[in-house]
Amino acid sequence: MPELPDVEGFRRVVSDHAVGARVEGVQVADEGVLRGVSGRVFRRRIVGATLTEPHRHGKWLVVPLAGSGGAERPTGHPTEHRPDDPSVVFHFGMTGGLSWVPAERVGEEPPHRHDRVVLRTEGGELRFRDMRKLQGIRLAESDHAVDVLLGGLGPDAATVTAAGFRQQVRPLRRQLKPALMDQTVIAGLGNLLVDETMWRAGLRPDRPTAGLDDAALNRLHARMRTVVRHSMRHGRVPANPSWLTGHRDPGQDQICPRCGTPLRRGRVGGRTTVWCPRCQPG
DNA sequence: GGTCTTGTTGCACC
DNA sequence: AGGTGCAACAAGAC
Prior knowledge:
By secondary structure, the chain is α+β, with helices and mostly antiparallel strands.
């Protein structure tokens, strides 16, 4: 599932329920989702720390910690994140997710077999579930380490300006869809969002980026922003009848909701791609 | 069995 | 250097 809007939904889960909570325990059911850190170190760093306001860049979710690891401090438990405090950094791959289970419901909601890591706080549990373990959880030791980790990403798809978008895309000489999927170009777009965006912009996914003038790039940017913002409100890419997303898959009608033409299905940039041959001519 | 999958990385190759 | 294609990661659906 997770593209930018899904990750935004996970950010809200943390923001709405877990900010200010002190981590009392960490269960690592499957160490395979921890990247670059052992379960032991991860647990030691996190237990006793307080979760602070999360932020998202593209498909990455950063949860900064206040205070870290074990030792009680004379001042009590700090609740302000400082630049040299660590952050928990999530990437959800294709099948990851984050949910909040309030303490009073923890008993009724037994662990799912794909719940890989659980952070327990007084108010409830933050559960990281991931079927395939294509990505996972990292621990960045400081804000600088977060910057290094995420430094290669392009501007976030939800906030990039038209000028920023043109600047990123214009120099490229490649197919449009793989360009937009590339997280170093624009961060946050996945397969569904990109197909939706190009369908609305009337551009074929396999057309070259070269030849798109400022007006075309501005239009593409505007469509992208509409798709991304609408999806963010839903916390996922909506399977709305007026969206390509509601028609693209076998089991759906696979008819363009705008013109009724049968949709085309193929591979572009190695990914399953759906487009309307009439609305998206060369 | 085979093929497919809403993500990313590393590598060979052009 | 920038771009492309493929395998790998892992686990399930059809």
